[in-house]
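Consider this one:
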Amino acid sequence: MKNIKLLFPLVLLLVSCGIEEQKPYQTPFVHIMFQEASESTISSLANVSKDYMVYLSSAPLSRNLEVYYEIQVGDGLQEGRDFERITVSDTLVFLTGIYDMPIRIKWLIHPLDLTKNNTLKIILKGNNLGINLGLPGPDHNQSVFTITKTQ
């Protein structure tokens, strides 16, 4: 009888665990971030390559995913002087089973004109499978990543 009294709370706990269980969010999406943020800075004294990761959040896909993006450069930065694109294609191909792909940029040492726009934006534009861009929700956070080159 003593064992039954001890088992009853355990059984009750196990049975009640699924009562308010929520189904996980099922809408796949693609987003870009660096160290869990939508923006980053880089020093004008940096001579370094950085990987800005694009992530796929989805159940396994049966086809390759092609993600299209563009890079917008502010008027204070210039390719070849302030940075070099290592990833030169504007399309990332996620083979089946791959869930993250880098956009690689090499930052070069060059003084800044602080009166100008010293940002580089990586903007997710679309994909071949119609998957949502950015985090779920109306704001589509993490569909744009902004890097500001600082003094």
